[in-house]
Recover the amino acids of this structure.
């Protein structure tokens, strides 16, 4: 009797482990039982669809065309405090899109740092915005910018990385620099990023288990925000956010989890492998970093900019991670990118 009970318990445990490790099936937009398609989309060469949004002046009238890349747990509807007067003055056309698995863009089972750049390139070609364009990525949306700088630099007119993501396992970081930055994170975030890097096969279980706290931003741990960020969050909460319910609608694994695993996984290149895409100063690359940012420690982006002097580094005092919601800073970001 005891061997049978032991066997049943073992089989039950193995079944539980299998179910915990296996990612759920995505709820693909437009599929049977899936969310409806309500946004314009383009079909990529591999059969996937990317949902997009155009804003600003029309692309036919635009002097500057900018592809905006949203961050973690966001979508093509992300808001930035860009003054309307600036858009009209400089005649800016914005093209934003749901990254793979987010919103209404199809998931990409082969999602990687590299695939992000080629999604951007193909989107630009499908919408015929020209042979060159500007890119701006915010927070987690900045790792696709690194990919663009590496794989499609010939398509860029300029690039801006705003409060940009960093991978603590990039070889370019001396051990003391990455260690110092990593220790500034909340312990639960340290564990989350370690698992994403070293054991991605375990990531679905980690993010769905209830025994240990996972990613701060998903568990409501407000310690990751400085006081100015908290003030910004309070102000933003007074205005309803349109489209938030669609961000994760195809599944958290396909949107959030794959995003983290791609960003914090093992890269095919190191930032030090990236060369200046504008050797004749025909464009520029910028990093904007808040000194009080508790999500992305300033020490790491400061170090990168020192080692890559062709990057124009802007470290803003008394500002945290949500600096794009400051209209004065947002205007400065775009003026530097387009006119600097």
């Amino acid at each position: 009797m005891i061997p049978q009970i032991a066997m049943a318990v073992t089989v039950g445990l193995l079944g539980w482990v299998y179910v915990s490790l296996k990612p759920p099936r995505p709820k693909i937009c437009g599929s049977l039982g899936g969310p409806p398609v309500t946004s314009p989309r383009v079909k990529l060469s591999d059969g996937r669809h990317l949902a997009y949004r155009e804003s600003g002046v029309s692309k036919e009238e635009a002097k500057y065309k900018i592809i905006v890349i949203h961050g973690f747990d966001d979508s093509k509807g992300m808001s930035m405090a860009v003054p309307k007067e600036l858009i009209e003055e400089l005649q800016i056309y914005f093209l934003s899109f749901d990254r793979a698995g987010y919103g209404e863009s199809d998931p990409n089972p082969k999602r990687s740092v590299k695939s992000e750049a080629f999604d951007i390139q193909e989107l630009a070609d499908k919408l015929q915005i020209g042979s060159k364009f500007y890119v701006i990525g915010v927070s987690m949306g900045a790792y696709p910018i690194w990919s663009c700088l590496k794989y499609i630099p010939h398509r860029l007119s300029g690039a801006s990385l705003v409060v940009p993501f960093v991978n603590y396992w990039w070889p370019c970081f001396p051990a003391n620099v990455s260690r110092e930055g990593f220790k500034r994170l909340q312990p639960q975030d340290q564990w989350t990023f370690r698992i994403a890097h070293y054991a991605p096969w375990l990531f679905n279980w980690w993010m769905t288990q209830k025994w240990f706290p996972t990613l701060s931003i998903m568990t409501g741990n407000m310690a990751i925000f400085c006081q100015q960020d908290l003030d910004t969050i309070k102000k933003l909460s007074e205005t309803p956010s349109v489209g938030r319910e669609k961000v994760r609608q195809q599944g958290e694994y396909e949107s959030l989890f794959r995003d983290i695993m791609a960003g914090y996984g093992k890269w095919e290149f190191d930032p030090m492998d990236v060369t200046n895409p504008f050797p004749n100063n025909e464009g520029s690359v910028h990093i904007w970093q808040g000194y009080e940012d508790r999500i992305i420690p300033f020490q790491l982006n400061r170090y990168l900019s020192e080692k890559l002097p062709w990057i124009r580094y802007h470290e803003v005092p008394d500002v945290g991670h949500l600096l794009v919601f400051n209209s004065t800073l947002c205007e400065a970001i775009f003026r530097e990118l387009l006119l600097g």
Remarks:
- The beta strands are 41-43, 49-56, 64-69, 92-97, 133-138, 156-162, 285-290, 311-316.
- The longest helix spans residues 2-21.
